Predict the structure of MFS transporter.
Amino acid sequence: MDPKKSSSPAITALFLVQLVFSIIFAFANLFMNIYLWSRGKSFWQIGVFNLFSVQAIFFSSLCGAYALKRWGTRSTFLLSSLLALGLFGYLFVFNVAKPSLIPTLGLLYGGYIGLFYIGFNLQILWLSNDKNRSLLVGLESAFATLAQLLTPLLAGYFIAARGYRDSFMLIIGLLILQLLISSRVPRIRATGGYRKRYFFLAENETMARLGFSSAAYGFLAAFIQMSYGLFFYFLVQNEWRLGIWNFVFGGVSATMFWLVGKQLKQTNREILLSMGMLMATIVTLSLLLPVPQLFILFNLVISVSLPMIWVPAKSSHYTQMIEIANQSNKQQTSRLGKMMQLLVFREFSISLGRIVFFMLIVIGFDFGLSVSYYAMILLACLMPFTIRLFAAEKIK
């Protein structure tokens, strides 16, 4: 499929399906851990759910690579929606999370995310060029952050008023809508040009650097997810208050994603990365102090600094992947297939970072907060620097 010939309705459908996905993802990302906590009061269960979901994100990306080759990107959107229908359908019918089923629920959730992103990111890569890449990355982030802005507020109020079971019913309705819109997204097939071993291994130094920076982001993003969600829930003790605060954090983040996406240029990329790195590192260090209210400061500052780090880094990743794919095309291999290979490797790297974080949850939190908590904070302090360091190299 030639991106220049893509119809406006098809492109609109792509971003509409991303918006619906982002609403569901924002709901689950914030409230699933709290739901599990309310049912089991166990950090171990939360860690297991997230570990299985993170592993499923990567392995579903591999399955998505096969689906992209056989049926095209549309199939990954459809399969993604069906897996989530299975997850939330079960929670709606039974309204319980049995410990024995926690891994299965994590696999369904991770499969939903992985299948969606392997198709969506391939679409964005295929449609982007040097002129519109930062804009598309900023637009993608703005849609996601818009969902993160409104979903916590509305969902927090609805959960407080009606409970989780009715909330799951609304999510099922949104998933049916996502399924319908998915049938209208562009259908792009990756027919070859990739090497399976490089799903797991860096093909060259450029991809090794991209992998390190993506793994660092995975760890940091997992920590921020818990800070916005369960850690902050312990402070406010109420889904409605949690939703109000996340509305504030989401508003700050949405504004920053829009500003950075609009203003990002090659000349100011390093400045934005460095400023975001310093802000994120300093505010993360403040969490070493035993003051729970510092999570308010952390969440506000990280809402400003994360877009300053990740939009330039992600734009750089896309530039690197497109350059490598173009070089492969000169060697008469499939450009799309190469892009898919690089996306799977990037997803693998992000998953590794997330796995390290949630392993700390599993092995540490049920046996006392001190050691694992401080290890988590110290590691999180290193992540902004790692992202900035390995995203700094320019294409040769």
